[in-house]
Amino acid sequence: MKRIFYPMLLLFPGVLFAQEIDMDAMAKIRKEGLDNSKVKEIAHQLTDVSGPRLTNSPGFQRAAEWSVSEMKKWGLTNSRIEEWGEFGKGWQVEKSYLAMTKPYYMPFIGIPKAWTSGTSGPIKGEVVVVNIQNEEDLQKYADGKLSGKIVLIKSTIDTDPTFKPDAVRYTTEDLDKMTNSQPFGQGNFTPEQMEKMRTMRFFRSKVDSTLKTQKIKLELAARSGKHGTFYTSNGASYLGKSPLAGPSFEMSPEHAGLITRLVEDGIPVTLEAESATSFYDKKLTTGNVIAEIAGTDPKLKDEVVMLGGHLDSWHSGTGATDNAAGCTVMMEAMRILKASGLKPKRTIRIALWSGEEQGLHGSRNYVKNTFGDPQTMKLTPAHEKLSAYYNIDNGTGRIRGIYLQGNEGPRATFEKWLNSFSDIIDHPTVTSRNTGGTDHQSFDAVGLPGFQFIQDGIEYNTRTHHSNADTYERLVMDDLKQMAVVVAAFVYNTAQMDLKIARKELPKARGEQGARR
Amino acid sequence: MKRIFYPMLLLFPGVLFAQEIDMDAMAKIRKEGLDNSKVKEIAHQLTDVSGPRLTNSPGFQRAAEWSVSEMKKWGLTNSRIEEWGEFGKGWQVEKSYLAMTKPYYMPFIGIPKAWTSGTSGPIKGEVVVVNIQNEEDLQKYADGKLSGKIVLIKSTIDTDPTFKPDAVRYTTEDLDKMTNSQPFGQGNFTPEQMEKMRTMRFFRSKVDSTLKTQKIKLELAARSGKHGTFYTSNGASYLGKSPLAGPSFEMSPEHAGLITRLVEDGIPVTLEAESATSFYDKKLTTGNVIAEIAGTDPKLKDEVVMLGGHLDSWHSGTGATDNAAGCTVMMEAMRILKASGLKPKRTIRIALWSGEEQGLHGSRNYVKNTFGDPQTMKLTPAHEKLSAYYNIDNGTGRIRGIYLQGNEGPRATFEKWLNSFSDIIDHPTVTSRNTGGTDHQSFDAVGLPGFQFIQDGIEYNTRTHHSNADTYERLVMDDLKQMAVVVAAFVYNTAQMDLKIARKELPKARGEQGARR
Questions:
Q1: Are B444 and B379 spatial neighbours (Cβ–Cβ below 8 Å)?
Q2: Mutation target vs A (from B49, B108, B111, B473; most A CBs, 10 A cutoff)
Q3: How far apart are CA A46 and CA B414, in angstroms?
């Protein structure tokens, strides 16, 4: 058994520094993760075989059921879908066709916005382009003249050529800058950015609802992206009692630009379109996928280390980097730990969340049901038993370090763990910074240590995150392998520590949380 | 009037060096081109309004007729479509729909291959994936078992993330390297690359024809590209007497990859598809768009300076960078010269070619009809009267210099002209190198000086060249403006020279030329 000794530890003994890394266990994890990797197979099942995975859709259900069954096969215990409450309606696309027929024929790249209804068969008609930048513009179109029309909302989306690569990795300088930066705002955005996004979202939804009252035939909207890539979102609410919204496509900005330039040049544009969508509203509740490796230490086995990522996705691709990547890595980490024959002292529990894309619903409700309510800060006994939660939701890029989320307690421990993988983690980095927009925040909100890893960006922010280009091809398998090994090591080390991971001060009780995005 | 004097010229007087640049004319060209540019309007007409411009298609016809009429409005003379002979059938897409319906629904990005026939209404069926890498593989499928099937030809297309930018400009180092490099091979390819491409093309067409004899229901093939971009080509011959080919789609490699992985995993994949295409075979002949500014010098007005680019395009986009960009720049250069009120000594003639994408047919036939036949090297009297031909067909990127095409004669002249625009040409460069694959080669083939400019690549080789992403949005208007000014200056200077542009030695008569691509 090989063990690394840190000379400093002899000078400054203490809980955080004292514990050695079990290098024999690390070697087993490496071997299983690098030589017998199953990331390709897992990712294929979650993306290609399951398909788009909007919460409560058949695709989500396929992925959840497969994950439960696969983890059972690996010998994990308590593998199940654990209901957390009411999410709302499932939804999926059954037909999507959009093309220009005049002044000439051209097929367009687009898809129905999530939770909108279909066109009830093929429709055809001339397009009206409306330019709605503010309330005043909006009022111009509230007089019924758009009734029965195909309406394109004019947009100004940047489609200029990019002189920066789609795919990037952090440089040493990037990481050093991150090491020294501090937590700010909510996650990755400044308060000003958050406010701007909120305002834009509010206005956009007002435009949608105004157009709805005008009984238009079809709504079209360009989305960001270029070269055939476009980003997707919802066009109506998923809540159980929300009213049906009329048909609405989101589409590539180039094709929307073509329509706009022709119409503004006085050339009539005729489109044909057909969409069909299915709603699944018989069962509005949903669940998270949960599975465990039971702890073996009599004193510690009731304590838990968690790892997870969200299983749900948007609907235009197969949600490969957002977030089959995270689920693949977390499942593979569990598989590695089980297959390596290691006996963790604490119980290790994986959670694959639902409803993340609509507001971290799966993890928020799990935390509320299991550990405590951030609104009241009434905590359960289980709150004391969780050591840490590790999350992956930043795409396919390999791990370069970890965000402390403002919790300086485990810095030295994490540095030690990362450094023990310095052959596969280039320039391992620990930053005090927080990172937002995903499920570790649900744990953080009740004062539980929730962490995300620093990952190379690859194409996450340029091509894949919520886009139609988010397919299996966008996964970098070598990076997924590395991530699974590092996560398995973090989780195992956390399970073996004498003490639980240090915590921040408990947050104060707070009011109802707003929707995340 | 401002004139630039080159001190060297006093030491080495001579025809090539002696002639001063008319800086007053250059100032007029700059002013008209930079302050009153019409590149946006011209490009909009050629792309958005005309649509895809496969030779002899209605889109090509719209673009050609608009160009003729617009150039007449500008006061150009002899503006007309000049017939050059038989090209073959026009063709266009009337309907294009391709989607997966099982194991779940997903709309696919794809389009019928050029000159293939339609599906005669919607079709549906399970996909068979065939892996045909060589003759032996091919024989396996020649026994009728594919009859009536939807067949996807398996491919291995690189869809890895790109860590290089889509859009690039030449660095000073790139250009310096080019200055010193020599002509090689055919155009941009080495003889080995050419041979490999020929072999691949031949085998691919053999696969197509074998599948055709198997009476399959629909052929599908992945094309290069990623993130929604895919490249297009033809699936059958455009020649007048060629037999009809069955329906065939080319599609995004990610969607083809999805089908392939599912089928290879034993999961049946069902597709639905519909294509409709129109053939235009009543008139198989076609023409090039020609227009002139008449020369004014009694002794030189019978001599001609030409400029051009091909007007035809592929069918999945609107052929913006390939090659509405070139046509826009050349038309704008003519407009600038006319609007500036300059009186060129020699006649200036623009040509917008047809049939370039299928083998430089428009320019080859124009040259053959007008100047001489490269096969026999029987030359016409007009051969002696042409000073030079300038071509643009490398996308939207601004001019950085010129390729001499192995003709060292005009080096000093071109250097002087480029340097006089060093404020808008960064690091002006003249290289002896040839560049291939387009219409200046038709002139070069009969010993006439035919040149292309060195242009910044922007997204030409990564995204736009022959792809569905080749739309108006991909044009960099500032670059088109600069190109039009520089081209107008080159053309005007050529028209004013005491002598014609120096020529290379006449090539020897050669046999029939093979198809270019």
A1: no
A2: B473
A3: 60
Q: Which residues of B touch A59 (CB under 8 A)?
A: 104
* Partner residues linked to A111 by β-bridges: A250
All residues of chain A having their beta carbon less than 8 Å from the beta carbon of residue B93 are 105-107
The overall pTM is greater than 0.95: no
Long-range pairs of B507-511 with CB within 8 A, sequence gap ≥ 24: B507/B374, B507/B377, B507/B445, B507/B446, B507/B447, B508/B377, B509/B374, B509/B375, B509/B376, B509/B377, B510/B374, B510/B375, B511/B375
Best residue of B57, B100, B105 to probe chain A, by most A CBs closer than 10 Å: B105
For the domain with range A15-87+284-496, which CATH number is right: 3.60.10.10, 3.40.630.10, 3.30.160.20, 3.90.1150.10? 3.40.630.10
Q: What is the pLDDT along chain B (517 residues), one digit of tens a residue?
A: 444 444 444 444 334 455 899 999 999 999 999 999 999 999 999 999 999 999 999 999 999 999 999 999 999 999 999 999 999 999 999 999 999 999 999 999 999 999 999 999 999 999 999 999 888 999 888 888 899 999 999 998 999 998 999 999 999 999 999 987 776 544 556 778 888 888 888 888 888 888 878 889 999 999 999 999 999 999 999 999 999 999 999 999 999 999 999 999 999 999 999 999 999 999 999 999 999 999 999 999 999 999 999 999 999 999 999 999 999 999 999 999 999 999 999 999 999 999 999 999 999 999 999 999 999 999 999 999 999 999 999 999 999 999 999 999 999 999 999 999 999 999 999 999 988 889 999 999 999 999 999 999 999 999 999 999 999 999 999 999 999 999 999 999 999 999 999 999 999 998 654 443 3
Search chain A and give the residue with CA nearest B397: A161
Q: Show the beta-strand stretches assigned E in B131-269.
A: 150-153, 218-222, 248-251
Q: In chain A, what residues touch B463 (CB-CB under 8 Å)? A: 227
Cβ distance A474 to B169 less than 8 Å, yes or no, reads no
**CA B239, B80, B335 angle in degrees (round to 5)?**
120
The token pair that represents B91 in the structure block: 């063709």
Contact B94 A105 (CB under 8 A): yes
Q: Which of A49, A58, A92 sits opposite B267 (nearest CB)?
A: A49
For A252, the closest chain B residue by CA position comes to B228
Domain boundaries, given as residue ranges, for chain A: 15-87+284-496, 90-280
Phi-psi region of A138 (alpha: psi -120 to 50; beta: other; left: phi over 0): alpha
Query: Which residue of A104, A252, A459 is in closest CB contact with B58?
Result: A104
Chain A to chain B Cβ contacts (< 8 Å): 161
ipTM score of complex: 0.93
Task: Inspect the interface and report whether the beta carbons of A58 and B105 lie closer than 8 Å.
Answer: no
Architecture of domain B23-87+284-496: 3-Layer(aba) Sandwich (3.40)
For residue B105, the chain A residues in CB contact (below 8 A) are: 92-96
Q: Where are the beta strands (DSSP E) in A180-266?
A: 218-222, 248-251
Name the residue among B462, B485, B98 with its Cα closest to residue A107.
B98
Question: CA–CA separation, A115 vs A275, rounded Å?
Answer: 12
Same fold, B23-87+284-496 and B90-280: no
Q: Give the architecture (CATH level 2) of A90-280.
A: 3-Layer(bba) Sandwich (3.50)
CB-nearest to A165 from B44, B107, B165 is B165
- Residue B168 with chain A: CB contacts under 8 Å: 163
Residue A379 φ then ψ, to 5°: -105, 150
A105 vs B contacts (CB less than 8 Å): 92-96
Backbone angles phi, psi at B438, to 5 degrees: -155, -170
CB contact under 8 A, B226 and A473: yes
Residue A213: what residue type?
T
